[in-house]
Amino acid sequence: MIIHNITNGLKNQTVTQLSEKADAGWDKMEAEMKKISASGNDISAQRIKAAEFKYWVEIEYEKYNISVYAKAARKILENVKKHIDEKKMHKCTQCAGELPINVYSFMAINIKCDSCGSVNTYQPDDRVRVLEYYVINHLAEEHAFSEKLRSRTDKNAMKEYWKKYYGYLMENVPDKKEFYQRQMEERLNNPFFTAFS
Ligand SMILES: [Zn+2]
Questions:
Q1: Is 103 inside a domain boundary?
Q2: Lowest-confidence region among 39-48, 58-67, 168-177
Q3: Does residue 9 belong to any structural domain of this protein?
Q4: How buried is 30 (Cβ within 10 angstroms: 0-12 exposed, 13-18 middle, 19+ buried)?
Q5: Terminal Cα-to-Cα distance of the chain (whole angstroms)
Q6: What is the Å distance from ligand 1's center to 123 Cα?
Q7: Is 111 a member of any domain?
Q8: Ligand 1 mean position to 119 CA, how many Å?
Q9: Would you tell me how many other CB atoms lie within 10 Å of the CB of residue 124?
């Protein structure tokens, strides 16, 4: 929440306000150039500079934004790892037999005890559960960032972005592989997600 508020404020001060200044500055400059009867070519050459500046500030902001979230994600992961005991055994509620449960699970699962046959429901640790959105999701965005940037000018890159983004999620959240696979296919096959890149 804090990062979101800060980056939003920063975006307003950089991308939004500086772009408005570039536009306002350009309007004045264009008027001045017309007064001195500058050629259409000279005017276009200057107009491009304003557009380039606006593009630059937007891209720099995007890069910064993605890196801040990725840094926070690594920090959160580091902290969670310190508090999660990977070797902790989960025991059957009926017979205290050991249950083969992966600590880094993201969904509740029903697991049958090998010793007594009773079904135990395992709820992942809340600190592990939040990793999916607050950590893995942001690392996936970082992983696929260059494709996302390219998609601004190259329509095919949007599909590469989805593949890379979901590929990362499927690899790191294997419990939900099928879910992400379906989402990815929906995006790859639905023109709505690729046409407006
Ligand atoms: Zn049991």
A1: yes
A2: 39-48
A3: no
A4: middle
A5: 27
A6: 17
A7: yes
A8: 8
A9: 20
Ligand 1 mean position, distance from CA 98 (Å): 8
The model's pTM is 0.84
| Distance in Å, CA 165 to ligand 1 centroid | 39
What is the pLDDT confidence band of residue 94, given thresholds at 50, 70 and 90? very high
Look at residue 90 and tell me if it is in a domain: yes
| CA 90 – ligand 1 centroid, Å | 11
**What is the distance in A from the centroid of ligand 1 to the CA of 110?**
13
pLDDT of 101 reads 86
Question: In terms of residue numbers, what domain contains 118?
Answer: 85-124
Find residue 90's DSSP bridge partners.
99
How far apart, in Å, are the Cα atoms of 78 and each of 64, 75, 84, 185? 21, 5, 10, 32
Check whether 195 has a pLDDT greater than 60.
no
The Cα diameter of the chain in Å comes to 92
Burial 166-189 (b: 16+ CB within 10 A, else e): bbbbbebbeeeeeebeebbeebee
